[in-house]
Structure formats: C-alpha cells, structure tokens
Amino acid sequence: MLSNTFRALQSPAAAARVAALSTAKRGMSISSLTQFEGKHFISIDQLSNDELRGLLDLSKKYRDTYGKGSSVNPVEAPKPLTGQSVSMIFQKRSTRTRVSTETGMNLLGGQSLFLGPSDIQLGVNESMRDTALVLSRFNSLVLARVFAHDDILELSKYATVPVINALSDLHHPLQTLADLMALEDHFGNLKGKTLAWVGDGNNVLHDLMLGGAKLGMNIRIATPAGYDANSGVLETTKQLAAENGTADVFETTVASEAVKGSDVVVTDTWVSMGQEDEYEQRVKEFDGYQVNSALMAQANDGAVFLHCLPRHPEEVSDEVFYSEQSLVFPEAENRMWTVMAVMAAQLGKL
C-alpha cells in the first residue's frame, strides 16, 4: 500500500499508472474466483491462496462500489444477485452477521430469509438432511450460524447449493476475512507482520491464525492453561506457516510474551454464548489477559487492536478499545463486504 505522502509526490500521470496497475492486479485475483463457484465456505484452510486473495480483493471492490464514500448511486449500482436468495439459519443470535448479510444481499439485488430458533429447530423436528434438501430447493445459498461444527458439516453434506459457515464452535471464517481486510487496509502487505492473540483458544482464533499463516504473518498465541486452541487446527496452521514462509507460530500462557514485538493484538469474548454458567470461573482464570495500555505498550510502535464484538470491559479497556489503535469498527463494517464477496463468488456472479 502506497503512503499518502508518496502519492502526493507522484505526477498525475504516474499516479494514474499506479492506480491502473492496482486495478488490473485486483481484477486478476478476482478472476481466480471462477474456481470457487458452487463451493461451500466452511473454514479458511479450505481456501486456496488465490481464492483467499480473490475474496479479499472482491470485498474491497464491493466497498468501493457500494460503500457510503462511493460516487455510485446505490440504486444504479450493479445488482449481480438479482433473483438469488439466501436462507439464514441462526441457532445463535448475532447483530453483525444478520445485519451484514441481509444488507449486503439487498445491495447485490438478492433476498435473504432469517430463520431463528423459533422458526426452525435444526435437526430436532426435522432432520438436518431433510432441512438441507428442502432449503436447497427454495434458495440459492444456505448460511448457518450454529453451536456444533458437525451441524455445518452435515448441512454441507446434503445441501445441493453452497453453504456458508457463519460461525460454529470450531470455525468462524467470515470474521477472519473481515479482520484480514481491516489489517490490509491499515498495513498493506501483511507478510512478515506479527499477530498476537490474547484470550480463549476459540473459533475466532482458529480461522484467524489459519488466514494469517496463509498471508505470511507470524502468529503468537497466549491462552490460559486449559483454554488452548484446537490441536488439529494448530497443526494445520503450522503446516500453512511452513508453506507460506511464516517465520513463527509461538504459544504461551503469558499475555505479555505473546504481545511483545507484535503489530496486531487481538482478543475476543472470554465467555461465549452457551458458556454463561462458566462466567465466574473464566473471568478468574483469564486474570491478567485484559488488553489495556500497559499490555499494548509491549507491542511494536504503531500496533493496532482488533476485537470481533460484542465486547466486555474485562476483555479490553476503554482506553484501548476507543483509541486510534483500534480497528474494531472498520473490522465490523467489513463483515458486510466480505459476506457479499463470498455469496457472489459461490454463485459465480462476480
């Protein structure tokens, strides 16, 4: 990413050539998504490097086209998903996932249907297989936000249309696309940057370390004893790190050790939905893991902070959360651009 200072020193002709090259490069990466048509989106490691690059660049293209800063009239903007629809199954509530998907699908000309716990009891009144087969006859896509990862796997096994994992207990790939997009907007090329995770070894961490490794980032993970990342996902991360020239995948139980020398500090809720009865125990065992100014001071100059929301004060102090270091709200906005890219790519409507 060129700095504003450098851009200011360029002649208009040189700046135009750079912009044209950037646009051409983005177009080439987006064209690689032709191989993604019809595929399920279950976890980041299932993407090829080209598909990951293409989804990030398509997300940026959609933001440029449909975003509030765009000169394009939203009414006159392209509607590539006209006539398409997505069923959204929600076992777990979410502000960002529902609003981003419904709004994004509308911007692209399609329709979305919300199916909450009172609308559909996944695998209870009707088998997962039958649900998948029925929704596939009505809709172009099925998006599901569930508790058990096995539910996503079963849906994708029987659905005859592409399935999107909008969160399971093992993976949260849509969040990772939004995070990586926010980081690329801030830093440009992420290769060689160091990402530190401080908190629970959960689904958000799993896809973020997979995606970071694919882009050549160093990964440093601090989790309390007993809250480690899934061993299988961690092993896959190390394999991807070796393949993509990542220098380091480091694990510790000490938050400051992970944050030292990092460019990005990330945390998440300590108590996920369904774990409410563990609240007191978890808060006690996560003592010392709050991301505050003292912890951020251990990171590199210019380090930034991410949190996927909703956020609680014990996880991150106000002075960090609302600071200039925080990319939390651009990160949240990116949830819309990235889900738009995934849906369009799965349907071959780029």
From TrEMBL:
Residues covered by the Aspartate/ornithine carbamoyltransferase carbamoyl-P binding domain: 39-184
GO cellular component, one term: cytoplasm
Gene Ontology molecular-function annotations: amino acid binding; ornithine carbamoyltransferase activity
Record-annotated Aspartate/ornithine carbamoyltransferase Asp/Orn-binding domain positions: 191-344
SUPFAM superfamilies documented for this protein: Aspartate/ornithine carbamoyltransferase (SSF53671)
GO biological process, one term: L-arginine biosynthetic process via ornithine
Keyword terms, alphabetized: Amino-acid biosynthesis, Arginine biosynthesis, Transferase
Recorded superkingdom: Eukaryota
Enzyme Commission number(s): 2.1.3.3
Family under the similarity heading: Belongs to the aspartate/ornithine carbamoyltransferase superfamily. OTCase family.
Annotated NCBIfam families: orni_carb_tr, PRK00779.1
Stated name of the protein: ornithine carbamoyltransferase
Species: Thalassiosira oceanica
